[in-house]
Design a protein that fits this description.
F-type ATPases have 2 components, CF(1) - the catalytic core - and CF(0) - the membrane proton channel. CF(1) has five subunits: alpha(3), beta(3), gamma(1), delta(1), epsilon(1). CF(0) has four main subunits: a(1), b(1), b'(1) and c(9-12). It contains nine helices and four strands; from the N terminus they run αβααβααααββαα. It is mainly alpha-helical and 250 residues long. α5 packs antiparallel against α7 and α8 runs antiparallel to α9.
Length: 250
């Protein structure tokens, strides 16, 4: 239409396209329906030719002006790809995990898998319409907070938390399961845990407590990865506390 006004009506034309992506997306859908081979990034194979042809139209008339400005192309988004790269690497490792298991991966790959799983669960959001199914109240998570959450996950600051803690929450607050329900942990706030499961020192079997301590020490030496080390350390601290309780009584 813009070309018609320029070439046939001999009028100066200003064509403003607020989002060229819609045009490209439509071409991609048509290309998929026609069974054409997509490009590397998933768009139609003639993507670059189409954009160049549109941009070139402004030079095809010497008598009238035609202004076209392309400010955005979907394939030029080459920054902020860490989340995508992490999920893609996790997808590549899934076959190896299914055949050989997670223990056969390198330390770096295990860390990538752990963070990718947290990202997958963080991508879930507590929708308002899903309250009747999840029991969780709906929340609106803004763009800034979403980006901040991804940065915290990818930077490793939240490596010590289980992946279940990221399901249907934002990183402004981490929800952890407990024996009697859930607790919320805010950033830079240490949770206060009250003892609800108390074991008397007189009820502890000394032989069993010593065996548990030896097993905990062995498990700590065999622990691989940050998560296993944390769990083994917690088990060892509990075992030592039980032995110390016996020694105090005796």
């Amino acid at each position: 239409m813009a070309e018609y006004f320029r070439d046939f009506n001999e009028q100066d034309v200003l064509l403003f396209i607020d989002n060229i992506f819609r045009f490209v997306q439509a071409g991609s859908e048509v290309s998929t329906l026609l069974g054409q081979m997509p490009s590397v990034v998933g768009y139609q194979g003639c993507y670059y030719c189409t954009i160049k042809r549109i941009s070139r139209q402004r030079y095809l008339s010497s008598s009238r002006s035609f202004r076209f400005n392309l400010n955005y192309a979907p394939t030029s988004n080459h920054w902020c790809q860490r989340v995508k790269q992490t999920l893609q690497r996790y997808k590549e490792l899934q076959d190896i995990i299914a055949i050989l298991g997670l223990d056969e991966l390198s330390e770096e790959d295990r860390l990538t898998v752990a963070r990718a799983r947290k990202i997958e669960r963080f991508l879930s959001q507590p929708f308002f319409v899903a309250k009747v199914f999840t029991g969780s109240a709906g929340k609106y998570v803004g763009l800034v907070e979403t980006i901040r959450g991804f940065n915290l996950i990818l930077s490793g600051e939240l490596d010590g938390l289980p992946e279940q803690a990221f399901y249907l929450v934002e990183v402004k607050e981490i929800i952890l399961p407990t024996n009697s329900g859930q607790i919320g942990v805010l950033p830079n706030h240490a949770p206060i845990a009250l003892a609800v499961d108390i074991e008397k020192g007189s009820d502890i079997d000394p032989q069993e407590a010593q065996q548990t301590l030896e097993i905990a020490e062995t498990n700590l030496n065999k622990a691989e990865g940050k998560r296993q080390t944390i769990e083994a350390n917690l088990a060892l601290r509990r075992a030592r506390t039980r032995v110390e309780a016996i020694n105090v009584i005796s």
